[in-house]
Amino acid sequence: MKKLFKMVAALTALCFLGIFQTAQAKDLTGELEIFSWWAGDEGPALEALIDVYKKEHPGVEVINATVTGGSGVNAKAVLKTRMLGGNPPDSFQVHAGQELIGTWVMADRMEDLTPLFEEQGWMSVFPEGLIKLIGTDKGIWSVPVNIHRSNVMWYIPSKLKEFGIEAPKTWDDFLKVAPMLKEKGIVPLALAQNWTANHLWESVALASLGAKKWDALWSGELAFDSPEGVAVWELFGKVLEYTNDDASSLSWQQATDMVVDGRAAFNVMGDWAAGYLSTTKGLAPGTGFGWEASPGTGGEFMFLADSFGLPKGVKNLDNAKAWLVTLGSKEGSDAFNPLKGSISARTDSDLSKYNDYAKSAAADFAKDTIVGSLAHGVTANEGFMNDFASVMEMFLKSKNAQMTAKAAQQIAVKNGIAK
User: Fold this and answer.
1) Phi and psi based region of residue 240 (left: phi greater than 0; alpha: psi -120 to 50; beta: remaining)
2) Which of these, 62, 238, 265, 270, has the minimum number of CB atoms within 10 Å of its CB?
């Protein structure tokens, strides 16, 4: 009986391997529908990936089903309708971590990609810690295409010289120069719609708590309504006093434009802003635009990774697997990331193809303390993220730190993060 079981297991493994090997065939035909939120200024990076895929598989028609909206807010809503309706795209963009695992993997809607990782040799070229993040004890669930940094403060060096200030190293430094900037009619910190407030919050929280206590929030060891948790919201409230009143009506690009134009001094945004500033705005990193770790987070790298998974029951299975091979390849990674403003998730990336910002990010990623992003799906499931958006709305209206911290703890309990 044991011999029979081993034989069945071996045949199953070979079957999976054989299926994934079809992804390498160059005579694929038909369609491939890829679903993402990379549009507008992020579109060229996606097109670069599609070009690499088309070179390998010219017989496949690629349907770029992009849904616009910063950080995938709108795309996730459309994806949910399609997944629950039994009409999944062939492959879709998702933030690596709990955004996928806590939602669609838990619902048994995704294929295990472990055979593909083994076939392509990815177990040795993707960092072990990243593979753990995108996997569970039952499989590996997505292919990472990049590493982004969340905790970055952007500025224009020539504008800071004109304002007579330097980039702040701490939030206390920021709060000292912010009143002077405000008196001059300059917005100290540009902000955009709701999700960018969540994005700013996590940088403020990391500065206030430090890496160990930040991680403790997500393991349930530190309560959101603890004194430390309340202090985060108190500091966040002080920072918000120096943001623009029209934030809710702006995209992240428009908030970045305020910095470029000199209407604002700083903007805390992920390093897709580097792609926007260099590719769309034509500014040279280091001279045309500058950056620092967001105040109080030097030596800490808050990361997120975009990835693509393979839903069960897709229409164009072989074409989807070939797409995943392109995403994980060195050629695909090094075509995509220099345009996106991110660094490769592979350890063998050709850094000569990247600009000075990306080189600095790669160096920091190799030496800094690494923590996960909340706003971009690493640390918490989608249920918590959706509820947190409502908590943020409550704080933006009330500015009540105690009440908001209690609400955050309640949704942590509701979504299984805290007891």
Assistant:
1) alpha
2) 238
